[in-house]
Design goal:
Layout (H helix, E strand, L loop, with lengths): L7 E11 L9 E11 L5 H8 L18 H27 L7 E11 L4 E12 L2 E12 L4 E3 L1 H4 L5 H16 L4 H6 L14 E3 L3 E6 L12 E6 L10
């Protein structure tokens, strides 16, 4: 990153609270945040976009367009998350008395890798606990340093590319699963309820684009996170650049 003139900072913050302050057996709420942010002043707009990109969920920050420092934004998120927890779960726990069901938590750590051209791949590894169920997933973002913005599918692919992407993703997933036909792929449990599609969760590598599907998105949750890596050379006619 240094050769690009990028200065990275790591912001760490956390809070643990009990729903019932006077009870040792009280349900708990915890938030643990470890975010990589940009220290360069010229990239402050990227920090704003990152914090409002959905990596912090619920996305309270998008309710306002007020500029905040990363530290202030994270502190605001944690304060809102824990205050909402007390407001929502106090009555539920009083009625049901289920400690596990009233225990929630949100953990996020991040990493950055150099990708295609002047694009950085920002990965957020998220663990979201809601009672007995913990959901873990990876949220991938592609940061164009030149344009100082996060790229979406419309920045990468030409209009009307949906059909071509569907075919490319289906073909590659068939190779990965050793299925011979799209029908075999559905029989194996992939894209049973929809046609193949390109998610906004993707990684722009040097020679490939990797589409990342969270557990349960296109197949049974037991299959875990699914990554489909498509070569640029196979979708050259679909790319803007």
């Amino acid at each position: 990153m240094q050769e690009m003139g990028v200065v990275l900072d790591t912001l760490k913050a956390e809070n643990h609270i009990a729903l019932l302050e006077d009870s040792a057996g009280s349900p708990q709420c915890y938030v643990i945040v470890e975010l990589i942010t940009f220290g360069n002043k010229e990239y402050s707009s990227i920090n704003d976009s990152l914090l409002r990109s959905g990596i912090l969920s619920p996305d309270y920050l998008s309710l306002s367009d007020i500029h905040m420092t990363p530290q202030a934004a994270v502190d605001s998120f944690i304060q809102r998350y824990t205050s909402d927890y007390r407001e929502i779960f106090t009555g539920i726990f009083s009625d049901e008395g289920d400690t596990e069901a009233a225990t929630i938590g949100y953990t996020i750590t991040t990493s950055i890798e150099e990708g295609k051209d002047s694009i950085l791949t920002y990965k957020a590894f998220i663990s979201n606990r809601q009672g007995a169920i913990t959901t873990e997933y990876t949220h991938c973002l592609n940061i164009d340093l030149g344009r100082k913005r996060i790229l979406g599918l419309s920045d990468v692919f030409v209009p009307g590319s949906e059909k071509g992407l569907q075919e490319a993703i289906t073909s590659q997933l068939m190779k990965q699963t050793r299925c011979k036909t799209p029908e075999d792929l559905r029989t194996a449990g992939f894209f049973v309820n929809s046609e193949a599609y390109a998610p906004n969760n993707f990684i722009l590598g040097d020679k490939t684009i990797t589409f990342v599907y969270v557990a349960g998105e296109i197949a049974d949750r037991s299959k875990g996170e699914i990554q489909v890596e498509v070569k640029y050379s196979d979708i050259r006619n679909l790319l803007k650049r």
